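Example record for the data management plan.
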Amino acid sequence: MQRIDRSKAKDRSSTISRLVPALLSWYSQNARDLPWRRTRDPYAIWVSEIMLQQTQVKTVLSYWERWMRELPTIESLATASPEKIHKLWEGLGYYTRVRNLQKAARLILERHGGKFPESFDEVLELPGIGRYTAGAICSIAFDQPTPVLDGNVIRVMTRLFGIEKDPHEKKTRARLWHLAEQLVIRASEGDSKTMRFASRASHFNQSLMELGALICTPRRPKCGICPVARNCVARRQGRTDRYPNLGRRVASIPRRVVAFVLRRGNRYLVRQRPAGVVNAHLWEFPNVEWTGPKLNLRAAARRTLGFEPKRLRPLCTVRHSITRYRIQLQVYTTKVDLLVRPAQAKGSWLTLPEMQNLSFPSAHKKVLLQMTGVVAARRQ
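Corresponding structural encoding:
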C-alpha cells in the first residue's frame, strides 16, 4: 500500500511539473486584456474579485470601470454614502457584497492606516472575504503562492486529476485545496522552464481561472486546443462531462409576487427595504408574495397597501431567478386619489426623476423602466 501511495505521489509530482510551465506559457499568449489585469493595486483587484462572484466578466467590465472612476481609493469607499455604493452596485445583485466592501474599507482605514494588508491572514479577516478571495488578492496583487479554488478552478482540477467525488464534500474539497497549493508553490519556485515568466504565482493562478473560463468550459470543453490536454485524466477517459461530480441539482422552487404601482399626480409610491433582509436598503414598489392557488388581487392589495384601490390594471410581468427560486412578479397599476392618507399607503411618493437616483433590485428596476416608457408614450 505504501509503495502504491509513493508511486501515486511521484506521478502527481511529475504531472504538476508538466502542468506549471504549460499553463504559464499558454496564459502569457492567451490571457484576455481585462482592465483589472493592468494593475497591481490590491484595492482594484479586490473590487474586481468581489464583483466577479456569481457574475460574468462581460457584465462586470462596465461596473468595475465606473466604480474605479467614482471610488478610486479605499478611503473614498469607506466614506461614501450608502446611497452611492448601492447605486454603483445596482444590477449586480447580492448586495451584501457591496456592504461588506465598505465595512472592510473602514476596517482597513482603522487598523491598517488605509493601506491594504499584504498578510493572507489579515486579508482573510476582512468582512466578505473568504479563502478563495484572500488567495486571489494575495497572489494576483502581491505574487504570493496562495492557492485559489473557485468554480472554474474546481472544474479544471477535477478533470485534470480525475477526481470523481463531489467537490463539496469536506475531504474532496481539502484534496483540491492541497493540489491547488502544490501547483502555485511549484510555479512560484520556478525552474529553467518557468523562470522567464514574471509574477509566476499571480499568472499561474490566473491561468487556471482563464483555462476554466475559455477552454475547460462546463459544456463542450475545447480539448483540442487545451495546453494541458495530454495530462488530463478526464480527456483520456472520454468523460469530461462527468467532472466535476456536483451531485443532484436542487429542484427549482416557483414563487409568485404581486407588486403595485400607485400614481398620485406625477408621483409614485415606493418603499425602502429595512436592514437585515434580502436587498436591504434598496427601494421597491409595494409588493407581497402570494402563496394561494388562485390570486385574490383585492386581498393582496389590502395586505400590502392597507386599502383596496378602486381599479387595478395589469402593467407587466417580470420573471427572474434568485438562487433556486424562480420568481414571477406580476405588476398592477392604478391612479389613487390625492386625498389618500399616508397611513393608508406607507412609503415615499416620488417623481420618476427622483426614483432614477435610487437603487432598485433588478426586477423592480425593470418595472421602473416599463413605467418610464409608458409615461414617455403618454406625453407624445
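Summary line stored alongside the record: The first strand starts at residue 253 and ends at 264.
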